[in-house]
Design brief:
166 residues, 4 helices, Arginase, Chain A, 3 strands, three-stranded parallel beta sheet, mainly alpha
């Protein structure tokens, strides 16, 4: 799966087209990861239909750029809307296109999954089921470097945090 090639003409927010950096390229990469996860789910369903004894249904996803979590988490929630997420990170990654200072989507995946503010206006994510992650289905662990706007979102939405925020 090639997710390294940016889409031509997909620029930074300074180009006047978007408040985010390379949204179409990031959206396409996340869509491809979502599709790969859904294909993997089909394999798991096949194995379960063969009556193989499975001891648990637990998925652990580790990744580098957190924007990719939009692909993996949305696929998990499509399989089971009752899925819970434990977000282990120093950052909340719950900025929106309106609140971000950098424009980098890797600081926004939770906002996209939870359908906060203006995320639907971002090009490249028409495949995403916005709002698939409900606030009662996520807990944050390890937060220590959270932007002021992110702190407000966490507080307003009463999202559980286990962290070193002051």
């Amino acid at each position: 799966m090639d997710v390294n090639t940016p889409i031509e003409g997909d620029g930074y927010r300074g180009d006047g087209k978007s408040k985010t950096n390379r949204p179409r390229s990031v959206g396409q990469a996340c869509r491809r990861i979502n599709e790969a996860c859904r294909d993997g789910r089909k394999l798991n369903q096949y194995v379960m239909n063969m009556k193989v004894n499975l001891f648990c249904r637990f998925v652990l996803t580790l990744g580098g750029d957190h924007s990719l979590a939009m692909g993996t988490i949305s696929a998990a929630l499509a399989a089971d809307p009752e899925t819970c997420v434990i977000w282990v990170d120093a950052h909340g990654d719950i900025n929106t296109p309106d609140s971000t200072e950098s424009g980098n989507i890797h600081g926004m995946p939770v906002a996209f999954l939870a359908d906060l503010d203006s995320v639907r206006e971002t090009p490249g994510f028409d495949w995403l089921e916005y709002g698939c992650l409900k606030p009662e289905r996520i807990a944050f662990v390890g937060l220590r470097d959270v932007d002021p706007d992110e702190q407000l979102v966490l507080k307003v939405n009463l999202l559980p945090t286990h962290c070193n925020l002051h």
